[in-house]
Amino acid sequence: MVLIVQLLTKIQTKEQYKALMKAIVEFNLEDADDVRNHLSCIKAPHMAAMLWEIRNNLYKRCMNEAELSHGSVADVEEGVDIVFDKINDLFSRYNIDPEELTT
What we know:
Blueprint: H1 2-9, H2 14-20, H3 32-70, H4 74-93, H5 98-102
């Protein structure tokens, strides 16, 4: 323990701290709960990318499609804004920042 404390007192930057971090996670893949947890871990980067896509690109695509199919976007834009306000509320409620997860 003393060695760890001495080492931690010498860390000057976030990069040095990250270089020291290491984790080993074990799963019993014969247990249904562990299988679900394992899938959550290995799918996390994909979920993060999807959340980033929803927040950053889906709005633009919805608005472009609305313009092409309806001509007038005022009503459609209001509806899309309402939906994305709700999506952003969910991001806030669950304390999820796609930018943080994908960078």
